[in-house]
Amino acid sequence: MTNARLSYLTRRGLLGAGAAFAASNALPSVVRAQGAKFRRWEITDPAMPPRVLASYKAGIGKMLALPPTDPRNWYRNALLHIFDCPHGNWWFLVWHRAYLGWLELTLRNLSGDPEFALPYWDWTKTPRVPAAMFADVLDPNHSAFIPTFDKFKSVFEAPVAALYASFSQAQKNGLAQRPFPMSTPADFWNIVPQVFFDQPDARGLTTANPTLDSATQATVAIDVIKSALRTPTFAGSPTGSDPAGFQSAKSSNHSQGSRQGILESQPHNNVHGAIGGPGGAAFMVSLLSSVDPIFYLHHGNLDRLWDVWTRRQTALGRPALPQGADLAAWSNEQFLFFSDDKGQPVSKVKAGDYTTMSVFDYDYSPGSGEDEVPVLVASGPAQVFNAQITTASIGTGEPAGGVVQVPSVVLQAPAIERPLPVAEITLNLGHADQGRRFRVLVSAGGGTPQTLAGAITVFGHPGHAGPTTFTVPLPENLKATSTAGNVPLDIRIVPIDPTAVVSPATAARNMRAPRASAAAPEVSAIQVRTN
Hints:
The chain has 2 domains: 4-372, Di-copper center containing domain from catechol oxidase (di-copper center containing domain from catechol oxidase); 384-529, Sandwich (Jelly Rolls). The chain is 32% helix and 13% strand. It has helices at residues 4-12, 14-22, 29-32, 51-65, 74-84, 92-111, 149-166, 169-176, 185-195, 214-219, 222-229, 262-275, 294-315, 325-331, 408-411, 504-509; strands at 38-40, 362-364, 384-386, 388-391, 400-407, 422-429, 437-443, 451-457, 466-473, 486-495, 522-529.
């Protein structure tokens, strides 16, 4: 295998390479991944062996055919995302690394391909669902998948009851921490109707319309990816006194949290929302999103970007993990629901078991964002500027948002590369807001035109209600009318109107219908932060 990372660092210069290798003992993934046994290929890369997709199909087919009492069953695997997934906190990426890794082992075993590794989808390079993902069982509308919720319940009601009866006390305690009731089978069946989508609504985008919408394309653009990769901290505080961090903010446990960094609130959430289709009613908008095989390609790219960020931090001599007491708190968080490729509970049950890609012995073919490793970065202390909210309610007439006075120097192109300024937008959300989507528009005062800065998709726990903060990087090409004094940045949040029609059963069950009468979500705060 060509050592792509070593040759890349060599091209970037001996200074950066020396810094990266000097720090390699602190982060084994920097070196070990270079000699990894398994390679995760970008799905549109011509060098990807054809057997990768053939084995992915074969493995999924085998998992779909397993009985619902088998933890390796495709839907049983998807249920882990309801039971345990973190969103809006600093375990977001590490939990999903473990989730993909154990699935990959299962697919390798069941497909009969001893070299199988999951592909990933670089949506920055290709902002449309890859054509291959509409073939056979790579599309959740295929006949091998369960077509309706009623059929799902008839097949899984008894196995779910048995599963709950088998849970340890520690697992039950974990379910009790979820932001929505999950302690009993009755709780489970109250949640699942909202997040299960009947065919043909299993995936919103189609072969005739595979392209991510314009708002989502803005959130996966290279400037947004650069902004995420330049985030200098692993995780910020939950109160907003510092940047949210690359991984999203700290939390007391992985079932809580409501402050999202750039990577989670921009490409992650909005790609999920876009694949829900114009009506926002398909598996990828819900906690059963992992029913759709494209979920794993999407999260593979996020995991790859974590690796890019880690190598960038290392090359710059910065911490790539939490420090001091934070490291112990983060590392000791328990993930208790994973099974291995034999269907047995795994022995690696802590977040710290998954800090490096070497745990599953894989690496990635190069993708978007690699040229951020390494660069010279200089940044001063963080500055925070609060907006005056002029209209709070979204979608009720006057566009919601406010105006924040920002020194013009903040908007000037940096002389050297450094973290770009971001807007942190806090919305008060209700239970019916799951799956709602909004554009974020910014103008720099004086009648300057509005620029699409990014988008917000409400993704995560369907029972969560209350304030949630989303991070949106300000456009690098935002033009101010003045180069001195303060610039009045006008930041507006407007709905992305759903236009698709979904089946009546799906609409009634997943709570899309009551939205028209639900209270409009409100903007409670907007801050502009320099780094």
